[in-house]
Amino acid sequence: MSRIGKKPVAIPSGVKVGVGDGSLSVEGPKGTLSMSVRPEVSVEVDADAKEVRCTISESDLKTREIRAYWGLTRALINNMVEGVTKGYEKSMEIVGVGWGAQVQGNQLKLQLGYAQPVMMDIPAGLNVTAEKQIVKITGADKQAVGQFAAAMRSKRKPEPYNGKGVKYADEVIRRKQGKQFGS
Predict the structure, then answer these.
(1) Could you tell me which of 82, 88, 72 has the C-alpha nearest to residue 37?
(2) Could you tell me if 163 and 175 are in contact, meaning their C-beta atoms sit under 8 angstroms apart?
(3) What is the rounded CA–CA span in Å between residue 60 and residue 36?
(4) pLDDT one-digit tens code per residue, 90-103
(5) Contact between 91 and 127 (Cβ < 8 Å)
(6) Partners of 131 in beta bridges
(7) Which value, to the nearest 10 degrees, does the dihedral of the CA atoms of residues 75, 80, 83, 86 take?
């Protein structure tokens, strides 16, 4: 059985959770998020206990795939509740001489050593701030924050010889020694 799926998701004060026809919406101080719920998993909101419970039928407990959907649904709901209350943040670091980032309207302009700057559209619901070589991405949707950070990193991945590139702030780049002449 799913150990994650069995745990209820606590609803903090100021957060509204609504369950409709195969969909779930969570509204809080940081925004509104919604998702479609798999038909195998039933989601109920207990207003008295202020919690959300995910359940599957007794016959589906034997199916590994449905048990996985059970735990996944509960984890996604928990991420949505945490996102509309606290929000998510990723910090990116641009390492390279003369490299940097600027926010221009709803686009992020990256100077990454190419002949032309790289322009990235900032998705709705995300807030991006850039200070020279540090870029902070914040938002209520965990998936959108992580996806934008990964797309930004893919524009110029860090290389192991000089350490230049776009990396997560907490990422450690394993450095290589390179060639040695003479000896």
Answers:
(1) 72
(2) yes
(3) 20
(4) 999 999 999 999 99
(5) no
(6) 134
(7) -80
pLDDT tens across 135-179, in order?
A: 999 999 999 999 999 999 999 999 999 989 999 999 999 999 888
Can you tell me the distance from the alpha carbon of 161 to that of 3, in angstroms, rounded to the nearest whole number? Answer: 44
Query: What strands lie across the sheet with 31-36, from one edge to the other?
Result: 16-19, 23-28, 31-36
Tokens matching residue 7 = 């745990």
The structure tokens listed for 167 are 């990396």
If 0-12 CB within 10 Å is exposed, 13-18 middle and 19+ buried, where does residue 143 land? middle
99 DSSP assignment? -
**DSSP annotation of 81:** H
Pairing of the two strands 23-28 and 31-36: antiparallel
Angle formed at CA 71 by CA 69 and CA 77, multiple of 5 degrees: 95
Q: Hunting for tokens 């940081």 — which residue is that?
A: 30
* Single-letter amino acid code for the residue at 57: S
**Which residues does residue 36 pair with via DSSP β-bridges, in sequence order?**
23
